[in-house]
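subagent[fold] <- orchestrator: predict structure for attached chain, return tokens only, no commentary.
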Amino acid sequence: MAAQLRDRLSTERIPSKVEDWLNTLNNWLAANPGWINAAIAGTAMLESLAIAGLAVPGVAMLFVIAAVAGTHELSAWAAMAWACVGAIAGDSASFWIGRYFKDRLPSLWPFSRYPSALERGVGFFQLHGGKSVVLGRFIGPIRPIIPMVAGAFGMDGRRFGLFNVVSALGWAPLYILPGYLVGASLARDPDLPPHFYPILVLALVAVSCLLALFFRLHLGLLPQGRLYNATEKYLRRHPRAFALWSALARPRGKTREFPLPSIVLAVSALALFAFWTLIVIKTSWLDNFNIATMEFFQAARFPLLDPLFIAITLSGDALLLGAGFALFAGGLFWAGHRAAAVHVVLAGVATTLLTTGLKYGLFLARPETVDLPPVTPAYPSGHSSGVTVLYGLAAAFIAQEFPRRQRWKIYGVAALPIFLVALSRLYLGVHWFSDTVGGLLLGLAVCGMVRVSFSRYDRHPLSLKRLPGVALLIWLLLIFGYSTFRWQEAIARYAPLAG
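subagent[fold] -> orchestrator:
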């Protein structure tokens, strides 16, 4: 494996001295696997530590160490946990360094010689405020600078700690899993299905194009967009229709924003869902594609990937999603947004009733690919519909408080867990492709209808200072606790069928 990893590193654009040092590190850890987790924690801390993080090739080091961990089949969860601990420690130390030195930072090396590095961090912090602690974690050049700047600017320690923990929980898998999976693959040499990589690239391109189309249409349906202006101009010539326009427009501030994107989303998603459902129950058009997709994912199942997809699919379980809706609604109610809280509760109840009613009304069979067959019918996927409504509504509420041309970023972030949960259902073989698409379309329709209904009550801005960060941390802890509690049962349930 060491030779294969050296070959991989040689293809990267890494200076020769650094490459030699990484090869030495790889060889030493391969001979001393007991130090791997400590090396992960130490490297993550150095990568996040002020000043040191500017000189240490932390990304490459973490890739190498994680690859060695994957080769020795050590726990991926332990590797991510140690990376998270190291990252939190590094950012915390940087914060207190900034708090101690404050105005003397420009005189310290290397900022005394390279002042632009500090200036970039200060500018980023002033632009994004506390959110820069989370955002900066994922931006290489300023990663070790932002916590120090936050300390120098007197950011509240408890608030910084919250952002530090939340960002580390998201950062650790992103930086550990790629190397870990490469190491595990080099060690096991899995037998992938035919044309695996072309199909993977084609699928990613297709999803990216769909998201780009969605964002482009959404932008055109916002105020000052062509479609929005044309619709408003047309309805002004029809008093009754324009009265409905005025009644649904958001009564916040001087400019009233009509929920045209939400109406278009609700109508189009509902129409597509009805059409898709008719195809599923009345024709056999999708049968061959469903079977081919199921066989592709079953051939692609890899023992070291199973825990990752099981963890992802557990995050979409009905019980956990119920807790997520309760947390979402409770946070809104506590912040004084009672109408929003009621709409979130109604969205959760409607999604449950619609999904369950359709499942048992249509009673379509699932694939027979796991040892313990699921207890509910197949169509539509409850995981897909539930996560779409939960994350879709959360994104909609948050995006509403951002400038119109920046909202696509919020929706893009929300699309990731929705896509991963739907993908996990296909990977584990417990749903057909048609089930997941049906769940996504149903969830989008519910999101659109709820947002249209709520627009009349959207009178006050949603506070984005502490509430989203606290709610996100609680949600991540709930996912971790639930996954831990259900882990052994889930491993047995999603084990592939023998033979």
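orchestrator: received. Logging for downstream: The chain has a mean pLDDT of 81. The first helix runs from residue 2 to 10.
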